[in-house]
Amino acid sequence: MPDFPADFRWGVSTSAYQIEGATAADGRGPSIWDTFAREPGRIVDASTGDEACDHYHRYAEDTALLAGLGVSAYRFSIAWPRVQPTGAGPANAAGLDFYDRLVDGLLAAGVDPVATLFHWDLPQALEDAGGWLNRDTAARFAEYADLTAARLGDRVKLWITLNEPFVHMSLGHGMGVHAPGRVLLFDAFPVAHHQLLGHGLAVAALRARTTSPVAIANNYSPVRLAGDTDADRAAAAAYDALHNRLFTDPLLGLGYPDAPGFDPAVVRDGDLDVVAAPIDVLGVNYYNPTGIRAPEEGSPLPFEIVPLDGYPRTAFDWPVAPDGLRELLLHLRDRYGDALPPIQVTESGCAYDDVPDADGRVHDPERIAYLDGHVRAVHEAIGAGVPVTGYFVWSLLDNWEWAEGFTKRFGLVHVDYPTQRRTPKSSYTWFRDLVRR
Ligand code: IFM
Q1: How confident is residue 47, by pLDDT bands cut at 50, 70 and 90?
Q2: What pLDDT is attached to residue 127?
Q3: Probe ligand 1: pick from 15, 216, 350, 406, max atoms within 8 Å of CB?
Q4: Residue 211 C-alpha from the chain's centroid
Q5: Domain count, the chain
Q6: What is the C-alpha separation between 161 and 152, in angstroms, rounded?
Q7: Strand, coil or helix: what is 326?
């Protein structure tokens, strides 16, 4: 492996609902995922995050795993319904106490706390009032950011406002396969704008409470053209605008792109200035490229997503394409130029069907190969002049993978869910050695 700068930030990521469990502890209110997971047919194995990895009670053991890994940072998310059980009103001190203990434990272990404020677990009470379709949710989000930073702002080293607002809009509100399960197709656009408005308002709230840097974590997927007609190229441009530009162009001051479903009516005077509040870091989550061609006639979509041939595949059937990471980093640099802040890859990882062997060890050579390729892709992008300053593996632990329940394992650490026993996989050792070097 080639050398990285000495101050490069190596980390791992998780999110609250996927690992914490303890969904009724210490006054936490229900979130949209508690509701959604209970609806028949929503989650492939009919599981919920009620227990997940029981991290709420085992955070000290998990912090020891982070210390053993030697990472300089840990990206976790804060559950809004722990801080504000109904999404409004004063802070629930007992909920914040948990993150207080976690943050102090991380600092004592020499690991920088990196906190995401919204990783999809909206308080159910806010959803009942319209959720992200309701402009007021953006203001509520800023209030929650303020309460959280008032307690943790002196110790969190990097704040991330939103995680993958594109995925929350498209899977949660466009297609209904994630919470809250709305099927609005392109009428989901207000969810994009209100999340971005909430981001901008939260940036201002954070700036008033902390001098730590502020970021957002977007998901990107380079488009692979599966056809060579003008219609195919138009379809690819439409998909690229929706997935890769809708949440980045306005953040970096370019306004909204001409994306399918874009509805100027929800954008009020002054909103774009709020959305474009300067950020210190752009978080990049990358998993795979997307194959696109022109849609069949009569399709409600302006593009068709097609499987990509010729790549190895993960247990999620996602193509393994490290070159896509290098390509997207170069594209970001080329598209945004001087407006692009330093980038940290805030998620990169893969699911495989990892099973302990007869000795209880978990060997995951595919994950090692996957991470090796993606880390090299980052190095190449840095060499080509892209300002990348960090890389976080998704995920520290096997965890509850949304609609896939417990069926997809992304961790460097295997979790045996019935016993909650943690077993570092061979990829944990590999990543530890990489970080040490
Ligand atoms: O598990 C998710 C995470 O919550 C958001 N980014 C993608 C991961 C893998 O699907």
Answers
A1: very high
A2: 99
A3: 15
A4: 23
A5: 1
A6: 14
A7: helix
In a domain, 1, yes or no: no
Beta-carbon contacts of residue 242 (< 8 Å; ≥ 6 apart): 166, 170, 259, 260, 261
380 is catalytic: no
User: How much of the chain is in helix, strand and coil states, percent to nearest 5?
Assistant: 40, 15, 40
What secondary structure letter does DSSP report for 31? B
For residues 45 and 139, is the Cβ–Cβ distance under 8 A?
A: no
User: Strand 214-220 relative to strand 281-286: parallel, antiparallel, unpaired?
Assistant: parallel
Neighbour order of strands in the sheet with 290-293: 223-225, 290-293, 304-306
Asked if the structure places residue 405 within a domain, the reply is yes
CA nearest neighbour of 291 among 312, 302, 303, 305:
305
The atom of ligand 1 lying closest to the CA of 119 is 4
Q: Residue 60: which pLDDT band, with cuts at 50, 70 and 90?
A: very high
On whether residue 184 sits in a domain, the answer given is yes
Both tokens assigned to 327? 């390509």
| Closest among 75, 56, 62 to 394, alpha carbons compared | 75
Strand bridging mode 73-77 / 9-13: parallel
CA–CA distance, 69 with 218 (Å, rounded to integer): 26
Ranges assigned E (strand) in 94-222? 112-118, 158-163, 214-220
Tens of pLDDT, residue by residue over 318-358, are 999 999 999 999 999 999 999 999 999 999 999 999 999 99
Which of 364, 352, 436, 349 shows the shortest CA–CA distance to 396?
Answer: 349
CA 36 to chain CA mean position, Å: 19
The tens digit of pLDDT for each residue in 282-297 reads 999 999 999 999 999 9
By residue range, what is the domain housing residue 363?
9-436
Distance 166 CA to ligand 1 centre (A): 12
Give the pLDDT score at 399: 98
- In a domain, residue 4? The reply is no
Structure-block tokens of residue 258: 């001409």
**How many angstroms does the Cα of residue 158 sit away from the middle of ligand 1?**
19
Task: Give residue 146's pLDDT band: very low, low, confident or very high (50, 70, 90).
Answer: very high
What's the CATH code of the domain at 347? 3.20.20.80
